[in-house]
# Entry
Amino acid sequence: MVVLNRIYTRTGDDGTTALGTGERRKKYDLRIASYGTVDETNAAVGLARLSTGSDAEIDAMLGRIQNDLFDLGADLAVPQREGKAERLRVMSSQVERLERDIDSLNANLAPLTSFVLPGGTAAAAYLHLARTVCRRAERIMVELAAKPDEPVSDAAIQYMNRLSDFLFVASRSTNDNGAGDVLWVPGQNR
# Structure
């Protein structure tokens, strides 16, 4: 259980923050940036949910995703090390659930004939914003994983990759199953 009695601790005043292991890192460290950007993704999903409440199915999916993103942040905050007890980790079952949700929503969508511009309904626009923040988090996680001694699980990276796909499909779903999508017209304004 998490108990937060006091919000400010002053321990970060020196430009560092603690990982879940207690190790202190600079606030610009890639690991901190990775779970910080996952947190931004979660905030963007929360913003999208302000406009998805009338769609109980998508809103419930987004609620599960927000919880998963906290799991992912916890996963990244405690680097996996040999010989250490396991902490909370993102699991392949969470990735598989996202895939099932994508397939469920995508089954009702017309095939695309062009790239989609962010827009249409407010929900779609917010979901596109969440998708772009999610992609940034994924890029940072992949960069972190490429560093020696900075483990990031395959499931964590896969989760963010699928999440961006889910957010795209969900945006189309909230745009009247794609009928309200705003399509890119190449060279339209020449």
